[in-house]
Design goal:
The complex is a heterodimer of chains A (261) and B (216). By secondary structure, chain A is mainly alpha-helical. Helices cover 49% and strands 2% of the residues of chain A. Chain A folds into two domains: 95 residues, no CATH class; 128 residues, Cytochrome Bc1 Complex, Chain D, domain 2, CATH 1.10.760.10. The chains are: A mainly alpha (261), B mainly alpha (216).
Chain lengths: 261, 216
């Protein structure tokens, strides 16, 4: 306001003419009708874009003419514009996070039973059993088949869109982290290239998947040593306490929890 | 400002050089306040967008349980009230206090119309158990997580309606001052900044209407 003396020497308050106000009013009503009309037509994703475009035209009529920014000092436009800049930052940062996020971190105790694995079922899941392989097969057909394919050849429906391609489990070479159970377990925990981490699955589930995946190919000779187990934090002589449950769950599961809470 | 009024004539506060300086400072303060309002509503718009991006089918199914005709009616109420508010501001700039009172009464009536429609909508939602989060109990709307849509709906429209009600109180205060012939071409600040606030409330609704009622 320091410069307001020179600035306002010849400044008079702008009085909005009634006729202008009426024109803006008519434009706002017409644009409202256009909004309703376009919403009746299915334009897919463009419905949203068109609605927001029309709303923004209406909004600018309101703040330029009714609120007088058009006739006002530039500084008030800058002040108001700054809020829109910060709003844009808000949106960009939120979605940069949300759209690139895998899991939501949680404390085990709030999880429902269905998300916590039963501790008694697979106490030593790193030792392959028929039950574990069968359990792994179930998980595989739900979680893995779309990329790795039903035969484990890395030729699932979604494989075409992926680069690098999903692992072909039927051949011996190319296993970046190695084909031992603990190595597959590690890959599932951390993810690899285009494969996301499956840390949200309880550890016995990840072991079950590892055992099942090994049945596709010639990997019988690759067995874990004590050092391999140590790398994934397993003491092979102790039964694992899985009652703590996962430390992270998928976003979908978290939203389910919130909406039923 | 109240303490500087003598016999209905507005006195410029001593720390301002002129009436114009005082007016510009007040108006700028209002714009800064409106910036905080934009940021306040931003949180809600982000929440809405997250829901729409992650649950597009649910939002689409749930929005059919809002009546767009009532939303459109309320849009017309608010746009028309913006027009009468614009008339009131220009009347105050000319010192025509009678017209200020008349136009602001029209504005109040339209705002009441908005509130009546809102109350009607809300009571319908309560009756049909179209309620936020865990309180959701409608059996016709089977989409998963539909309670989240109504959480967003009630918070967004509820906070907006709160702004409308506060605005009505402020408009009433300006009407009472205009009845005392307090406004003149030299002093119409309260009318001007109340107008800014009221237009802003209209502006928020301009976005709420298509976002909630016209998902497509």
């Amino acid at each position: 306001m320091a410069d307001s003396n020179q600035h306002h020497k010849n400044h008079e308050h702008h009085i909005l003419a009634d006729s202008t106000a009426k024109q803006v009013f008519v434009a706002l009503i017409v644009l409202t009708i256009v909004t309703v009309a376009t919403a009746q037509v299915d334009l897919g994703i463009f419905n949203f874009a068109v609605a927001m475009l029309i709303a923004s035209v209406k909004a600018s009529l309101v703040f330029m003419i009714f609120m007088g920014l058009k006739y006002d000092h530039r500084e008030n436009s800058v002040i108001f514009g700054s809020s829109l800049v910060f709003m844009a930052c808000f949106f960009v940062l939120c979605f940069a996070d949300l759209l690139t996020r895998g899991d939501v971190y949680v404390k085990g105790s709030i999880l429902p039973e269905s998300l916590v694995s039963q501790p008694s079922k697979f106490p030593k899941a790193w030792v392959s059993t028929q039950e574990l392989v069968a359990h792994g097969k179930e998980l595989y057909s739900a979680q893995c088949v779309s990329c790795h394919g039903a035969e484990g050849a890395g030729n699932g429906i979604a494989a075409a869109a992926l680069n690098p391609k999903p692992r072909n489990f039927t051949v011996a070479d190319g296993w970046k982290n190695g084909p031992k159970p603990s190595q597959i377990f590690g890959t599932l925990t951390k993810g690899l290239n285009t494969m996301p981490a499956f840390a949200s699955l309880p550890p016995p589930d990840r072991w079950a998947l590892a055992h099942y995946v090994r049945t596709f190919g010639p990997h019988e000779s690759a067995q874990d040593t004590a050092a391999d187990f140590a790398k994934v934090g397993v003491d092979p002589n102790k039964a694992e306490d899985a009652s703590a449950g996962p430390t992270s769950i998928p976003v979908d599961a978290a939203i389910d929890l919130l909406s039923t809470d | 400002m109240g303490s500087h009024e003598v016999a209905g004539e507005h006195q410029v506060a001593h720390h301002f050089k002129s009436a114009l300086d005082e007016f510009e400072a007040c108006k700028q303060a209002m714009w800064i306040f409106l910036v905080t309002e934009v940021l306040f509503f931003s949180g809600l718009f982000v929440a809405y967008t997250v829901l729409r991006v992650f649950e597009p089918e649910m939002v689409k199914a749930a929005h059919h349980f809002l009546d767009w005709r009532l939303g459109a009616l309320n849009t017309v109420f608010l746009i028309t009230s913006s027009l009468t508010m614009a008339f009131a501001v220009s009347a105050s700039q000319r010192g025509d206090n009678k017209r200020v009172v008349r136009q602001l009464i029209y504005t109040l009536i339209l705002a009441c119309g908005f509130c009546v429609v809102k109350i009607y909508e809300y009571s319908h939602k309560f009756h049909d158990k179209l309620l936020p989060g865990a309180h959701f109990g409608n059996t016709e709307l089977t989409a998963n997580k539909a309670g989240l849509f109504f959480s967003v709906y009630f918070v967004m429209t509820g906070i907006h309606a709160l702004h409308v009600v506060i605005g009505m109180g402020v408009i009433l205060w300006v009407i009472l001052r205009a009845r005392k012939n307090e406004f003149s071409p030299n002093y119409f600040t309260p009318v001007e900044i109340t107008g800014l606030y009221w237009h802003f409330v209209d502006l928020v609704w301009i976005y709420l209407f298509p976002l909630l009622y016209l998902v497509g």
